[in-house]
Design a protein that fits this description.
Elements (H helix, E strand, L loop, with lengths): L9 E5 L2 E2 L8 E2 L2 E5 L9 E4 L3 E2 L10 E8 L5 E7 L5 E4 L3 E2 L4 E8 L8 E9 L6 E8 L6 E2 L4 E2 L1
Parallel strand pairs: 6-13
Antiparallel strand pairs: 1-4, 2-3, 5-7, 7-11, 8-10, 8-12, 9-11, 12-13, 14-15
Length: 155
């Protein structure tokens, strides 16, 4: 018995009757499937980039990064902040991401952290049935060129 789900979405149920040579009574079997149209390991959203790297390798200050939250589910989702190292950065999240759409979020470093290197994370939660949480790594490495005043050289 094969159940093809190619044209189906969401929850489906099939109840075929099976006839055997065991007797005259037909047997009934019920098959229930939850069809996920676009399976993904990070369902119900995809976060890109999945790791936020705001490293700075030069004099140009890099103090913020944007990332995209794409809702791959069939329902609108609210996004809430669960945990964030507030001494390092602030975060602007979309309040809601509509089904099948994307929304931008922005992480900005606090001004007194521009010279710091760190590896931290932030955690968001969705209002789906499972109250899914995502922890997003945040990395910053600061390397500025070293100048030698006597020689006028830059590394």
């Amino acid at each position: 018995m094969i159940l093809s789900t190619k044209r189906y979405k969401h929850r489906i149920q099939k109840s075929p009757r099976i006839e055997t040579n065991e007797g005259t009574q037909k047997k009934k079997v019920t098959i229930i499937a939850e069809v996920v149209e676009r399976p993904d390991s990070t369902f119900p959203v995809i976060i890109k980039p999945y790791k936020l790297d705001i490293s700075q390798f030069g004099e140009t200050i890099r103090d913020e990064i944007e990332f995209t939250i794409t809702n791959v589910s069939e329902e609108d989702l609210e996004v809430q902040l669960v945990d964030l190292p507030q001494d390092l950065f602030e975060l602007k999240l979309p309040g809601e991401v509509k089904a099948g759409e994307s929304a931008e979020a922005r992480l900005k470093l606090n001004k007194d952290m521009l010279e710091e290197s760190f590896e931290k994370s932030l955690t968001i939660e969705l209002n789906d049935e499972s109250e899914t949480r995502f922890t997003i790594p945040v990395k910053r490495t600061v390397k500025k060129p070293v100048t030698s005043p006597e020689l006028g050289l830059t590394n």
